[in-house]
Amino acid sequence: MVMKFMHLKQVVPYIYILVFFWPTLLLADSKKDLLIESKTDLLTKSTADQQVVKHSIVNQTPIIIDRQARFHPITSSNGMVVSQETIASHIGADILSKGGNAVDAAVATGFALAVTLPQAGNLGGGGFMLLYLAETNQTLAIDYREMAPLAADKTLFLNRQGHVDNQLARFSALSTGVPGTVAGLIHVLERYGTMELEQVMAPAIELAQRGFKVSGPLAFSLNRAKNRLKNNSASARYFFRKNGNSLRQGDLWQQKDLANTLQKISDEGRKGFYQGTVADLIIAEIKRGKGIMTHDDLINYRVIEREPILGNYKGYTIASMPPPSSGGIHLIQMLNILEGWDLKTLGHNSGAYLHRLIETMRRAYADRSQYLGDPDFFPVPVSALTDKAYAAKLRNEIDTNKASASSQIKPGVMLPKESPETTHFSVWDSDGNVVSNTYTLNFSYGNGIAVDGAGFLLNNEMDDFSAKPGVPNAYGLVGDEANAIEPRKRPLSSMAPTIVFKQNAFKRNVKTTTAENKENNSKTNKPVMATGSPGGSTIITIVLQNILNYLEFGMNVAEATAAPRIHHQWLPDKVYVETGINNDTLKVLKAMGHNLQGSTRVLGRVQAITAESDVTRSNTTGNQLFGASDTRWPGGEAVPSQ
Ligand code: DON
């Protein structure tokens, strides 16, 4: 008894300490987070380059889970694949786990999306891939955009009265450009991949052959597109139940003809698509629809490796897609204009910040309408448009208190209500190779025409040309001579797969023997972000805001992706706004004279990865990766590799 009493007496002081100091202990715990924050705050104040506190790679372990964040990315210390469809992301990540590099995984993901995300994943479309190769410290821009058939010309979509026939430009066999996806994916695999085509295509073939369970988002999307798809007899067969009803969530969906086409590609490479039976089926379908594409057009399709567009923004290098995409040029142009203001101090999504964004977007898109087109046909003034002095001139013309008016000469049109589809995916491997890829059929399910017997949809990318100067396309974009239809020309795009590099951040330890490479390695810019989005004309402003959220406002990639966005494209002279921008801010913008679109709309679906040096590893090439698949559409996923 005495012993027990003694024991209790000894414990009393501790109970006392616990009761009175518990709140302090709790505080101490939360202060641990604050400590990390304040350390980074100090960094913020030191140099402009280090504004990006949460991503600082200066001598500290990255903050893997930031307790202040409302949205959290998926993490990985190996590789990662982020795409808009979960099965495809897993297939890509699995290729990484099996030792494939980022290119192998990207090609596997690209073919898988053609099976699991038919609204945008494709064989019958085209796109752009930005590729960073760690060992050689090279960034390449792969152009596998569709080409106009040889017989196409300026009058293609004009009726007898000289008016643009939108039905022809968007929903007929004439709207189809020569597909580039298969050639593009094979091109990068052969040059920069490590695996055989057969190996990276096997999962897609199996998915098409054995089938997979239809997801909720896929069932929803197919059902929404039912009118367009039912217009074509092959699509009506491929994308619905045997009795003609819509596929439902949980249905097993097999695509035998698509499986055969994929198998042919896997067996024969490029020839398996651009020649032989698949090509015959494509041309037969085109002829049935009174289109003009020929076997020659297919055989002559070529992939082009281009120099990426490069720009600098406060200690970062931005690499993005050159023409025939307008994405890179205008992304850099807008960053150049914006870098003259202290955006961080203005505050994220404040009226003052959004006003500057809108005025910047207005000017970039005005230039787009006149100067952008396929560089093989039109001399695009790349350096003039991305020149810092030109940006400064545009910035000086912006009244920071008042909206300017877009040209009143051409009538604006509304952007389409129905969300069309493109899709982006980002891949990062454990050696630091990065792929940022955006590809598309243009609209959701392209023109709705499936190639009978071959199981895939055709694009309606020809509508991205300017069918007549000043007449807007489906995205309300106007164009001129630069983007007029010409034989074998590529239509202007807004797709903007982008990779951001931190300058002078990192000395890569590369196995190399050449003096040149050694020199290069010592100057290596470290890739810190891969991003991109669908969204037609809105893609460039979406990518811009995603990058600014990350670089300027220090958001993690999930926050940067979730944050509400706005869009302006010169014509129509309207600001498109997502939900989540508060009413007071909107009032400020209205008071400045901005014309706000009455209803809100959703802008894009970003699939992004960011990286910090993993300083906990002895090898400095190690990355801690963070991935986010946009919550604006369900069913995407960031998947780490093992
Ligand atoms: O290349 C372009 O800019 C368009 N064809 C992209 C279409 C698109 O992003 C539709 N998705 N939302």
Overview in brief:
The chain is an alpha+beta fold and 642 residues long. Helix content is 38%, strand content 13%.
Protein described:
α3 runs parallel beside α6 (197-210), α14 (327-338) crosses α18 and α14 packs across α20 (539-551). The chain has helices at residues 2-46, 86-97, 102-116, 166-171, 181-192, 197-210, 216-224, 226-230, 233-238, 256-268, 271-274, 276-288, 295-299, 327-338, 343-346, 351-371, 382-385, 388-397, 515-522, 539-551, 557-562, 583-591; strands spanning 74-76, 80-83, 126-133, 138-144, 212-213, 252-253, 304-306, 309-313, 316-320, 422-428, 434-440, 498-502, 526-531, 566-567, 576-577, 607-613, 623-629, 637-640. The strands form four sheets. It has a seven-stranded antiparallel β-sheet with strand order 1-17-16-13-12-9-8. The chain has 642 residues and is α+β, with helices and mostly antiparallel strands. It is 38% helix and 13% strand. It is globular and about 60 Å long. Bound molecules: 6-diazenyl-5-OXO-L-norleucine. The site of 6-diazenyl-5-OXO-L-norleucine has 14 residues, from loops.
